């Protein structure tokens, strides 16, 4: 990562799509088509309800719809590529027929990513930061924008006593190395984004440290995505045990992320977080 920063408040265009960052941060709406996601598992398993939810999120202000065919909650087990494809592809095909909103595929599997891109997705959101050695090849073949996230371990092991000497420096160093790895496959730097992975192999205190020092990630020359929506550490602070009741706690983390310079926030409650983002963008642009 260099000292010559690329402009982030601009329009990002790539062969499969475009995103307008001219006003600042934008919203990625979460659409889990799984039976076991931590907050909304089973809610959008049938295609019609998933499409309805996607269109509602677009109406509410989402600029990206993130399709998740595999739960990555703590303790979750892997889902086969075939099962992920069966869950995700019909939804992606119908969303892209109904709207020109950008669709991303939340997967660690290159086979799923390729099938999703062929169906109309244009972003790969990979919690393993190209852990599948064929994933960067797929991304490069289709010139897909890719989001590389930090995760310590795997979803099934990541919350078993994670430890760091300096969580901010170590996560940033890891993401820097994965960006360089991805660029080695010919992916343009502007197509690569980073995500510190809040809640993925981090303790309560690690999550707060990463949010407190998020500006260090945002000062790099890569756009930053932050996903804090409804997560357990918010419930620990507020006493809200039910994920769907963590709306105001989520809003606080979204505001902190936008003010620190995040380019994308990944959320469940799009309509409410759209107002938070609008206000924070106005502050940043004042």
Automatic annotation (TrEMBL):
Chain ranges passing through the membrane: none
Reaction(s) catalysed by this chain's protein: (7,8-dihydropterin-6-yl)methyl diphosphate + 4-aminobenzoate = 7,8-dihydropteroate + diphosphate
Source domain of life: Bacteria
A GO biological-process term: folic acid biosynthetic process
Domain Pterin-binding: 25-278
Role according to the record: Catalyzes the condensation of para-aminobenzoate (pABA) with 6-hydroxymethyl-7,8-dihydropterin diphosphate (DHPt-PP) to form 7,8-dihydropteroate (H2Pte), the immediate precursor of folate derivatives.
Metabolic or biological pathway: Cofactor biosynthesis; tetrahydrofolate biosynthesis; 7,8-dihydrofolate from 2-amino-4-hydroxy-6-hydroxymethyl-7,8-dihydropteridine diphosphate and 4-aminobenzoate: step 1/2
UniProt KW ATP-binding keyword: no
EC number: 2.5.1.15
Keywords, ordered alphabetically: Folate biosynthesis, Magnesium, Metal-binding, Transferase
Keyword field contains Iron-sulfur: no
GO MF term set: dihydropteroate synthase activity; metal ion binding
Annotated family: Belongs to the DHPS family.
One GO term describing the cellular component: cytosol
Protein name: Dihydropteroate synthase
Cofactor: Mg(2+)
